[in-house]
């Protein structure tokens, strides 16, 4: 498997994951009983980190390698989209998850998490699409 193929595969994995999170997981936080959310959320974040962490790190490494090896506008835009996803993770998703973990069920935080997660959903989808044929 080439570096380009591996990069596309990892990016596709993130696309599948983020769409499941966006359409199923995050909206599913709200109906969880408030007294159960903190323990459920702790298990979720621990488990999802083992999936999303290696994918995110692999995506950066593979895309960085590609961009260094054969720079192109499409790969540059894909890298920019990945940077947007990382920034949205650090400055929007992580603080929302921290708030849910610290304070428990908060419908406003859950709504904000769902709404702002569209940034990551679009960014990772775009990063994948830009790598097709690049």
UniProtKB/TrEMBL annotation:
Task: Show the stretches that span the lipid bilayer.
Answer: 9-27, 47-68, 75-97
What are the UniProt keywords, alphabetically? Membrane, Transmembrane, Transmembrane helix
Q: What is this protein called?
A: DUF1772 domain-containing protein
- State the organism of origin: Paludisphaera mucosa
